[in-house]
């Protein structure tokens, strides 16, 4: 099955180095995650970010408790980094964060390739749950990030 793709860009009126620094601090992830996910970072902080870094989380999706582990698979400050789910609610989750200078600020792009669980029912799971959840999570981020950086 081919992965689903979500991609969204947002202009931020801040220098790339500052935007990258905010997102490279794993502790800020809970600040940009919607409260309804009851998100908690389990890995002791501070977390030294680099290729190979593992980060453990706990959250709730539709009320179900989930453990999630990601690995930083690419680390190229202050331009991009990639995290990949090792354990969690998806069959596949790869999230690329890109940061580009633009005018007097930064164009931040999130690109997520994902596959929900559900085998032959995965397309239905995506249509009725996952696609909307991903959209709502990134809508929340888009609305709150400018205030936080």
Mind telling me the CATH class? Alpha Beta
Strand order of the largest sheet: 1-7-6-5-4-3-2
Q: Cα distance, first to last residue?
A: 37 Å
Known CATH architecture: 2-Layer Sandwich
Number of domains: 1
Topology order in helix (H) and strand (E) letters: EHEEEEEEH
- Strand coverage percent: 35-45%
- So what's the overall shape? globular
User: What is the CATH homology-level superfamily?
Assistant: START domain
**Main sheet summary:** 7 strands, antiparallel
Number of helical regions: 2
Uncertain runs are none
Average predicted confidence as pLDDT: 93
Within the CATH hierarchy, at the fold level, what is the topology?
A: Alpha-D-Glucose-1,6-Bisphosphate, Chain A, domain 4
Q: Give the fraction of residues assigned to helices.
A: 10-25%
Radius of gyration: 15 Å
Number of strands: 7
Which structural class do you get from the secondary structure elements? alpha+beta
Walk me through the structure.
- The model has no long low-confidence stretch (mean pLDDT 93).
- By secondary structure, the protein is of the alpha+beta class.
- It has a single domain, classed as Alpha-D-Glucose-1,6-Bisphosphate, Chain A, domain 4 (2-Layer Sandwich).
- Strand 6 (90-102) and strand 7 form a beta hairpin.
- Strands 1-7-6-5-4-3-2 form a seven-stranded antiparallel β-sheet, covered by helices on one side.
- The radius of gyration is 15 Å and the shape is globular.
- The chain contains two helices and seven strands.
